[in-house]
Amino acid sequence: MNQFQTDTPIYLQVVEEVKSQILSGQLHPGDKLESVREMASRLQVNPNTIQRAFLELEHQGFIVTQRAVGRFVSEDTDFIKRCRQEKIHKTIEQFVREMENYGLTKEDIMKYLVEEEGK
Amino acid sequence: MSGLIEIHDLNKSYGKKLVLKNIHLTLNGGQIVGLLGPNGSGKTTLIKILNGLLKDYQGEVSIDQQPVGVHSKKMISYLPDEPYFENWMTTSDALNLFVDMYEDFDLNKALSLMERMEIDKKIKIKELSKGMKEKFQLILVMSRRAKIYILDEPLGGIDPAARELILDTILNNYAQDALVLLSTHLIADIEKIFDEVIFIKNGEIVLHENSEELRSQRHASINDIFKEEFKC
Question: What's the mean pLDDT in A92-110?
Answer without folding.
Answer: 93
